[in-house]
């Protein structure tokens, strides 16, 4: 290929002198195929990036996006000289004028490739803008969540230069402020807790004093309770004995009544029998 791209001495187009050769057409075909392969790879990268942007969160794909952008940039740099050569070759064939059919084919192919290149570059540019906006919004939300402040231009500069030292400084200040607030809150909580402990301690002291003052009464009440318990036990014992005695006395009384009745019956019988005999005689 390099042997064809030698510039003619004194000419503006290095391909003018080769325009009538078959080798020229072969070289145009090879460059076209090479450019088509580059365009396919660029379209594939753009498609992958569109899927990432469509997911709504590119934070998990930052490294992947970085690789895609680097590869796309390399392909674009590689495509630029090829497009320039194809344009010059197309103009050389047009200037030669003896091959209008070949010129029309080359022109149509060249126009398709430039159209595809412009299309993929436009899509890539829109994706870059969307990704930049998503990154910017996420950084702004992170700033808001952490109580930090920065203008949109400052955030863009940080993202472009990858210099977040100001953010780190602001974050350190915010963290120190937050730590100080926590210390103050903890100190207030400790003071409140200490006050509650003092109040509780005073209550305990008052209870102890009351208990000491009323200890004799408490002991006396306790003695009376024990004595009352003994009296109850003793009374229960005596009651049981009285019940048993009452039952025994009742039995004795019945036995005596029966005995008296029997004796009276015997006496009556003893008197009645002789009297009846006398009456009969």
UniProtKB/TrEMBL annotation:
Keyword Disulfide bond found: no
InterPro entries per UniProt: SNARE (IPR010989), Syntaxin (IPR045242), T_SNARE_dom (IPR000727)
Gene Ontology MF term list: SNAP receptor activity; SNARE binding
A GO CC term assigned to this protein in UniProt: endomembrane system
Pfam family of the protein (one): SNARE
Subcellular location per the Swiss-Prot or TrEMBL entry: Membrane
Similarity comment: family membership: Belongs to the syntaxin family.
Full protein name: Syntaxin-1A (Trinotate prediction)
Organism: Henneguya salminicola
